Amino acid sequence: VLDKLKAERERGITIDIALWKFETAKYYVTIIDAPVHRDFIKNMITGTSQADCAVLIVAAGTGEFEAGISKNGQTREHALLAFTLGVKQLIVGVNKMDSTEPPYSESRFEEIKKEGSSYIKKIGYNPAAVAFVPISGWHG
Q: What is the number of structural domains in the chain?
């Protein structure tokens, strides 16, 4: 939705940060869509450095979460960068829950939540204050 560049739409990845602003009765909100691809990490840092809260999206698919949370994984790197850049509020969206076996597997979600909580605690977040939310980009 926020990817405006033709290259972003063609490749299916975010390349540059995009902003979307709205307000509620109490707050002015700016959503910053930042790239996660390793080639565009400078743009991710630019977007994250402006944030008060981050939504870290992790994939629930077999092997995908494990790759992201591995020693050199993107999930680890992005969570660490967010904390280092001063983002103290974190939400973790566990995406692709429709592709788990069985679909929307509670045990897979709990496994990811447990391992994710362990890592974010190591870098400085309080896991009790971090919401882990099961989601699906295709089926809600």
A: 2
